[in-house]
Batch of 4 targets.
Target 1
Amino acid sequence: MLVNIKELREQYGLSQQELADIVGVSQQSLSKYERLETEPDCKTLVAFADYFGTTVDYIIGHEVKPSARRNAEDKISKREREFIEQFRKLPRRDKKKIETAMGIYLAK
């Protein structure tokens, strides 16, 4: 059923354990999904689609091309995503300080 999960996982540079942690399943379950030995529940299918910015139809092989909802995020690393997530949690004044410092650094 999940014909495109392994391809997407590898494209994003994720291990089975990393992706399993992200969607909330065990590594063993993810391995079985990739080998088409078992199928996930609907909640897990949606978690895969949401993470990869595509549709459940693409995940299960009913859509030829992935959704184009993802843009530059496709190319960022796991560490960059972690920085973005941490940045989003900061108070506005701290974000402003980081933006100012980044502007100064990039202007060099």
Note: The chain has two domains: 1-70, 76-108.
Target 2
Amino acid sequence: MLIIQIIIFITSASAIWLVSRKEDWRRWGYIIGLIGQPFWLYSTFVNEQWGIFLLTFVFTYSWGQGVWNYWVRK
């Protein structure tokens, strides 16, 4: 479970840092954020953190919107 927590930390911190940048490579933050979501879902499900588990679906949708707007629709 430690590896899951490390992946969550790296993907979440990197994604937030990237999307807050002004440069064009900020769009990578949405990809990294989306990559981290399965680990969030797994961790919150296994630990029965139902509120955060449901919130993770909102975050997944939000990261997905960023991917759509900055990668697909561009």
Note: The two ends are 37 Å apart (CA to CA).
Target 3
Amino acid sequence: MFVRIKRNVSKGVAYEYLQIVRSYREGGKVRQQIIGSLGRRDRLVASGDLDGLLKSLAGFSEKLRVVEAVRESGLAARTAQ
């Protein structure tokens, strides 16, 4: 799955919408299905809802939890000689 930006123009004004999309194969061809629409990008960013959603989703990723733990603890990578 991935997030796609869908651009629409209405009355001369361009809007961007965020969609969650999944890819799959059907009969040897790649197809895409829109799982859901998150809303207008500018509104999601301005309200902080996009950051909140990303933090919530990151909680389900073990790799991102490790990265966040390292970042919060102040550990830094150094080269070995």
Note: The chain has a mean pLDDT of 89.
Target 4
Amino acid sequence: MGINLDCPRCGKRMTLDFVTATVSCKHCGYVRTTGLEARAAEIKAKGRRPTISLTHSGEVNPRALTLFHTGHDYLFQDKKAEAIRAFQSAAELQPDFLDAHLWLAKTADDEAVKRDHLSTILAYNPGHMEATRLMMVLNGRLTPEQAERALGGEEPVVQRVEGPVETQTTTLKCPVCRGDLTVQPDTGRVECRFCGYTGQQPVYKTDTSDSLVAALLERKTQPTRWLVGERLLHCNECGAERVLEVNQLSMRCPFCGSNHVIEQDALGSFEQPGGIVPFRVSRAQAGQAIKERLQGVSERLRGLFGNNKVARATLSGYYLPFWVFDALLEVTRTRIDNRPSRDRTRLPTSPYTRTQFSDAQYDIEVCAVKSPPPALTNQLGDYHLREVVDFQPELLAKYPAQLYSVDFDQAALEARGLISTAMRIKYGQRELGDDDVTINVFTNIRQMSFRLLLLPVWIATLVEEDRDIRTALVNGQTGKVALGKAQKPG
């Protein structure tokens, strides 16, 4: 929660000046001292200008750098207008000098000017932490106090919740007759099986991805990060209460059979999906796909060493949560020729060459649950995300959904690994005859964005005649099958 910004004198909203670190009211002139202002005053009392660290990663024109430091000398002397002119000259001399734009955004009084310079920075470097933080304040996503907290090294306190947490749910009932709803597989429309009510056609999802930098900054400003073990469902139809496992997003009341979708809990400990991909593979098609996979050559060979014939099976459809990432990349490829110089008859003659590429990776899918295990969900193959539609609780009327147990920051680490591997494969190939050449590929992620989607999966439990148990998954959109290893019961 942010600190109250209501002016104690007139009650109107106050603002934070990032240069003077002053919280003030533009309406009545009230000024409040903050921790930033106190630190600035302490530095100034010592009689020396604070050292300014550059965020610009490339080369800086010497004249532009001189103008930039001159601007800070003027700021130290409380000559704001002269400082702005110096920063502006530095930015005009080198338009991609990000620190000049950053301090123009910090010193400007006009919000439009601030936004213009911050947008310039993010156009050159979409992952710029400081520009992102200031833009989030302008957009109202962070309060000035939260932005100040994000500067510090404090992390949210992880707090485990004892006992079930109350939830707010949506009951999936027909608005006409209060009957059960279902989803028509061909059109994706929500329908009532009793009165014939038909909902609106699902809307294909526009881009609602979030910046990973912004999300991490926002999380850092929260004082507490809650770990919830159980949630409490209060049925709006029959009044019964039931304790739910933490990984359930939708479920049926065991007493009256009404279908519920959790919208939020009392602690706001999770976020709703941003979109959903409808089922395209029917239950019969999923079962047939598993049967064909079991009749493959590898399974017949396995049957030579054990009885892997299936005695009985269960098959159910679920929506599993996936974090989906997009990334803008800067790839550096180094080629090291390890041969003696006399043996280098072909170009390049230099033993060391370095090349840079700009690249991008889209729709990197990371399953956000621990069960089924990643060893299986990673085999489901890619989904066609052009079919993502806007998430509505009613779309879970036919198949239940799980909540994520792997958060976006953990999933982002796995996505980075997948991206780095893809770039090593793409740029790490050696040419014919380059046996004595070493290729190194380094991937720098300039920007990463993500979204949470519900993707369709058929989950089967196969009990073999020798009582071994196997799990099989079927991609509910493409029909691709993933078979787990046989396990002894218990």
Note: Residues 159-274 form one domain.
